[in-house]
Amino acid sequence: MNGIDVLGPQISVLVAAGVVLVVDALFPGQRRLLPFLALAGLLTAALWTTSWVGRGDYQTVFDGTIVLDRYAVFFQYVFAGVTATVILASIDWVNREGRRQSEYYALVLTVCAGLMLLAGARDLITIFIALELSSIPQYILAGWGKDAKSSEAGLKYLLLGAVASSLLLYGMALLYGVTGTTILPDIAAAIEANGESYRALLIVAMTLLIAGFGFKMAVVPFQMWVPDVYQGAPTPVAAFLSVGSKAAAFAVAIRVFFEALGADFLSSDWSMIFAVIAAVSMTLGNLMAIVQSDIKRMLGYSSIAQAGNFLVGLAAISVAGEEFTLGASGILLFVAAYAFTNLGAFVAVIAISQRINSDRIADYAGMWKTSPFLALGLAFCLVSLTGIPPTVGFWAKLYIFNAAVRADLVWLVIVGVLNSVVSAYYYLGVVRVMFLGEPGTEQRFRASPSIAVALTATAAGVLVFGIVPAPLMSAARDAVEIFAR
Amino acid sequence: MTPGIEHFLTVGALLFCLGLAISLSKRNAIGVLMGVELMLNAVNLTLITFSRFAVSPNPIAGHTFVVFILTVAAAEAAVALALAVAVYRNRETIDVDRLNLLRS
């Protein structure tokens, strides 16, 4: 019974997916209800998660393969919120597309269940299953559109994703071979006992794991799918990929590297690898983003650069004691900040591109005059992505760079700050086009209610946590306490 | 001479490298998928070898892992073929070099 209780949120999300399918099959006239049924499932999951916080009873179930701790709770809130925003932002697009509506929502909910399972997975097999449970529906969703571009994006995403998960699996197989177990804390204990003698093998396994997770995080050199898939996939799906699967990859990577591979002789190696990947991702992502003329491609490259910022937190672990987890808490803060900010930007892009039927940045000219609400929301989110106060993006960058300075990674901070300056050029370039450009048409338009709700909620999150970041910071710090040593 | 753990692991590693080479060099999407399948089966062989030969407190975990990998690989292949059909309907090719609609 305990296990069922711990998996409650995932089960309620999956039940909602089933209900959506059945309701659509039985009452085809009631399509308008579907997104609200999906949202109800997510709300149930969030309430279930909240009930544990009230009970404060954190535990491991199913022979230690699934754990319920503050870390899992933190990410379950993030994933429920991200999925709810994506569903709100999809309503218009799905209605316009017209076909197979219930399947779309059911797949989105399945991805969410996989992501939530990943947050609490503490065993290599469970991690693999959860990762695939969230990935396979994402491949389908990326190919959901009717046009050739969308199916091309889906196929590319799947092929590269399958190669990446094979690399990940080989890494897991080697890790199992060295340690004889798949449970993360047991792996750590086995490495502590006699890991030094297998150091070379462990480093090979670690590199393969980094390749597998790096694909999902979308960091260089595993980033080649990102711009293509973001451009080709339906925009709500691209929004989901950019936040959901990236956050999940970092969630599981932090758990694996801190809980299983945290031994001193390994952590010095992986923190160095992550530092190099972080610097390269930031630089390459930003430089490529500058030259893009398609806003979805630009957001794709910018998400690569942002993933580089996240990785600074995984690189910054060389301090011992209390501050060992400072970098990890920085990633959690950054994940939450990025979820609000990037989703807000994507919601505005979804609404605008449906209206003007174009993703070209040049066509955003004069958006301030034709749709002030969307232009202001998008501009505000882009400012937060740059990292300018008073937005939550500023605090996330400050926090994570502070962690890097404490860990003596001053060079990485310099690279990061220089990159923020570069990123300001293209983020604020879009703002300039929207506010100073001349609109092609004088016809004003308004956002639909669901888009308005989604954009207001995300922008409010960016602003509120930009002014009072303390609650978010302490939540992030509490969540990673379990990794302290 | 009976084959030992090192022989099985070597075969596994070779198969994995072959699969990786195939999936990175093939231009036909189905060819890439075949490379992936080879990699997954190399992983399965490695897992089985470790749970058979290595001193492990939990040998059954390796077997379990293999069963899950087989299942997931089947699901993934189904989706991959569906997407390949969708692409073929639109473009009349599944040659990954010619899938170049997406660019800046």
TrEMBL record, chain A:
It comes from the Bacteria. InterPro entries: NADH-Q_OxRdtase_suN/2, ND/Mrp_TM. It is found in: Cell membrane; Endomembrane system; Membrane. Keywords: Cell membrane, Membrane, NAD, Quinone, Translocase, Transmembrane, Transmembrane helix, Transport, Ubiquinone. It is a multi-pass membrane protein. Residues 121-422 form the NADH:quinone oxidoreductase/Mrp antiporter transmembrane domain. It catalyses: a quinone + NADH + 5 H(+)(in) = a quinol + NAD(+) + 4 H(+)(out). The chain crosses the membrane at residues 6-27, 34-54, 74-92, 104-121, 127-145, 157-178, 198-225, 237-258, 270-291, 298-319, 331-352, 373-397, 409-428, 449-468. Its EC number is 7.1.1.-. NDH-1 shuttles electrons from NADH, via FMN and iron-sulfur (Fe-S) centers, to quinones in the respiratory chain. The immediate electron acceptor for the enzyme in this species is believed to be ubiquinone. Couples the redox reaction to proton translocation (for every two electrons transferred, four hydrogen ions are translocated across the cytoplasmic membrane), and thus conserves the redox energy in a proton gradient. NDH-1 is composed of 14 different subunits. Subunits NuoA, H, J, K, L, M, N constitute the membrane sector of the complex. HAMAP family: NDH1_NuoN_1. Belongs to the complex I subunit 2 family. PANTHER family: NADH DEHYDROGENASE. This is NADH-quinone oxidoreductase subunit N. The gene is nuoN.
Automatic annotation (TrEMBL), chain B:
It catalyses: a quinone + NADH + 5 H(+)(in) = a quinol + NAD(+) + 4 H(+)(out). It is found in: Cell membrane; Membrane. NDH-1 is composed of 14 different subunits. Subunits NuoA, H, J, K, L, M, N constitute the membrane sector of the complex. The chain crosses the membrane at residues 6-24, 31-53, 65-88. It comes from Tepidiforma flava. This is NADH-quinone oxidoreductase subunit K. It is a multi-pass membrane protein. One of its GO terms (molecular function) is NADH dehydrogenase (quinone) (non-electrogenic) activity. NDH-1 shuttles electrons from NADH, via FMN and iron-sulfur (Fe-S) centers, to quinones in the respiratory chain. The immediate electron acceptor for the enzyme in this species is believed to be ubiquinone. Couples the redox reaction to proton translocation (for every two electrons transferred, four hydrogen ions are translocated across the cytoplasmic membrane), and thus conserves the redox energy in a proton gradient. Pfam families: Oxidored_q2. Its EC number is 7.1.1.-. Belongs to the complex I subunit 4L family. Keywords: Cell membrane, Membrane, NAD, Oxidoreductase, Quinone, Translocase, Transmembrane, Transmembrane helix, Transport, Ubiquinone. The keyword Secreted does not apply. The keyword DNA-binding does not apply.
